[in-house]
């Protein structure tokens, strides 16, 4: 049987450029109307019993090539468990991994995928629970729904939203964990939070990019996290409909959930540098981070992004825009494509299950601070 490579499915991305014996040369396809690329997801058939080497030859030109060193490809034979390929390296601009294939089909991905089919199943499952309201806030350029699940009856307006960058699939795993906790009738902390806050949860801000196998952009090649100052129906209807919904409710707390290619840790980025910054208000953001670090070994405070200098914050980014626009305690959560080096898992690396558990810790931390917001 000949070996075939296929990425013609929900969230798929790869191009086979040639074979040399048991070595397959590949390229990641750019986001539509964009130069961004890094996400890959494909399957291989006909390789059972063979030892194959895969080479992504255009890795050096990807959006974040500095993220490849120390990274390990994810592999699955059942699309449920996604293990790290130990024999992964990045040398001379080529991402390479070698595996012994023991099944008729095998899948590879940049991170454990979260497909649009999984998204629809999540919305249907959680949306059917008591006390949950599902709204379609708007539609994407490809006509897909921007889903928002609202939970709770309290006066504090809280927003969690994820996957502005569609290749950051760990973020929708995070949202699945958050939603499952919020509807768990046996979780006393979640129930107390629902009484004090109304939580608006947008699991996927970029369905078009998710389905198309993009790394960072929507169907028009637009980076949604640079559209929050002036979103438009033509470029960024996803941001426009979510921001309009936020305008209708107000926001006291917001978390924008992302993945980071290079830093092997979970960390928060805040809104230093906005015109409205005050130290007492910013202290609430810092206190949230301290409490989260105390709550779980999967979060830390040492590694992260450089803070913006006073007056230099980019208000086109959601965290800065929401802090300035609403006075919200607003933050970006970043999770790794690699592993959390301070608390590693050699088999799975940073994983869907750990993303979901981190969501639980984030909600527990919020519950302990909600009266202070």
From TrEMBL:
A Gene Ontology biological process term: proteolysis
Provide the active-site residues from the annotation.
Answer: 334
What does the sequence similarity comment in the record state about its family?
Belongs to the peptidase M14 family.
**What does this protein need as cofactor?**
Zn(2+)
The identity of this protein, by name, is: Peptidase M14 domain-containing protein
Where in the numbering of this chain does the Peptidase M14 domain appear? 112-373
SUPFAM superfamilies cross-referenced by the UniProt entry:
Zn-dependent exopeptidases
PANTHER family assigned to the protein according to its UniProt record, in alphabetical order: CYTOSOLIC CARBOXYPEPTIDASE, CYTOSOLIC CARBOXYPEPTIDASE 1
Report any Pfam family annotated for this entry: Peptidase_M14
InterPro entries linked? Cytosolic_carboxypeptidase, Pepdidase_M14_N, Peptidase_M14
Known CDD domains for this protein? M14_PaCCP-like (cd06234)
**GO MF entries:** metallocarboxypeptidase activity; zinc ion binding
């Amino acid at each position: 049987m000949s070996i075939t490579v296929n990425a013609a499915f929900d969230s798929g991305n790869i191009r086979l450029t040639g074979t040399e014996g048991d070595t397959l040369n590949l390229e990641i396809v750019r986001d539509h109307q964009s130069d961004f690329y890094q996400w890959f997801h494909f399957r291989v058939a006909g390789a059972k019993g063979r030892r194959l080497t895969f080479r992504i030859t255009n890795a050096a030109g990807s959006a974040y090539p500095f993220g490849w060193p120390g990274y390990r490809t994810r592999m699955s034979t059942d699309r449920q468990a996604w293990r790290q390929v130990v024999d992964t390296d990045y040398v001379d601009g080529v991402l390479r991994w070698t595996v012994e294939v023991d099944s008729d089909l095998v899948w590879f991905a940049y991170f454990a995928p979260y497909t649009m089919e999984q998204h629809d199943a999540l919305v249907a499952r959680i949306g059917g629970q008591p006390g949950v309201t599902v709204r379609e806030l708007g539609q994407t350029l490809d006509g897909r729904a921007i889903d928002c699940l609202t939970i709770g009856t309290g006066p504090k307006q809280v927003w969690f939203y994820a996957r502005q960058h569609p290749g950051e699939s760990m973020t929708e795993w995070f949202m699945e964990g958050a939603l499952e906790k919020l509807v768990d009738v046996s979780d006393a902390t979640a129930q107390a939070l629902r009484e004090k806050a109304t939580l608006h949860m947008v699991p996927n801000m970029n369905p078009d990019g998710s389905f198309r196998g993009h790394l960072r952009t929507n169907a028009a090649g637009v980076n949604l996290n640079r559209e929050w100052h002036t979103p438009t129906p033509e470029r960024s209807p996803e941001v426009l409909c979510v921001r309009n919904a936020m305008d209708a409710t107000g926001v006291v707390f917001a978390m924008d959930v992302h993945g980071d290619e290079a830093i092997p840790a979970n960390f928060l980025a805040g809104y230093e540098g906005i015109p409205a910054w005050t130290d007492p208000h910013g202290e609430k953001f810092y206190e949230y981070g301290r409490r989260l670090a105390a709550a779980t070994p999967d979060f830390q405070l040492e590694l992260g992004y450089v803070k913006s200098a006073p007056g230099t914050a980019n208000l086109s980014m959601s965290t800065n825009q929401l802090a300035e626009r609403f006075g919200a305690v607003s933050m970006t959560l970043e999770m790794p494509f690699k592993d959390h080096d301070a608390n590693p898992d050699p088999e799975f690396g940073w994983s869907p299950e750990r993303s979901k558990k981190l969501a639980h810790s984030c909600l527990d931390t919020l519950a302990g601070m909600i009266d202070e917001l």
